[in-house]
Amino acid sequence: MREKKQASVAEVSGAVEIDVTQLADIERGALRPTEDVLLLLISYFSVPEDDATRLWDLAGYDKPDTSPSSRPEPVADASQQVMVLPMDARVVYTDMAHVVSNKYGVTVNFMQSVGLAGQPLAVARVGMSREHAQHVLELLQKALTVPAPKLLPAPKPPSDTSANS
Prior knowledge:
About 30% of the residues lie in helices and about 15% in strands. It is of the alpha+beta class. It has a 3-stranded antiparallel beta sheet.
């Protein structure tokens, strides 16, 4: 898919935010992508759902037991790399979102228009299970619900106590 799109390993690994050697190992079959990385690759390449299902099955995630103990070990010469990034608390504003969903999960690509042509640039990618996506949707709906303004009660008319005195 990468070669068909005429993208370099560096371009694709940067787009899905994984190490270049990790992507090369995945392409060679020396390393199985994690579920999150596979969802990001499926989203990046805009893989149709039928093909995405085949890729999911090929990666071995079609089995009911996908716990870490049941997953096949990577090939002995493949090294696991861990990337630790500092936490960035800045807020990134977007004006577009591209959502890809299949029976395994949801990937949301948040994008921003850049340049004169308004070419979309992905500023954040978030992958999650369908259950988590449903929870996020509920939270968004709750956050976007505008409560009715609370009004003070109308003032009571003054009672005429001076007439009795």
